[in-house]
Amino acid sequence: MNRSKEPDQSTREDDLLVQFFQRWAPFGGGSDEDIMVTFGVTRRVYVDRLRSLACSPRILRYPIAVRMQIHDFFGVPSRRLTP
Asked: In terms of domain of life, where is this protein from (predicted)?
């Protein structure tokens, strides 16, 4: 495995997770079928990945409004919103 590509891969995956979340959040989230078709994983795996992103420093790459929306969804303390 080429480790030099891992950060780019994580960035793309994070972006896809966030875009999907933003698109479907106003409607209560994507359906199990939408999640499976888009990511090839179950809802639980999708939510676990999004939660992992929300609780990691990688979330700081996104605008504050996006971070707040994701953190509100998971109930993550607001102290994690800023660097």
From this structure: Bacteria
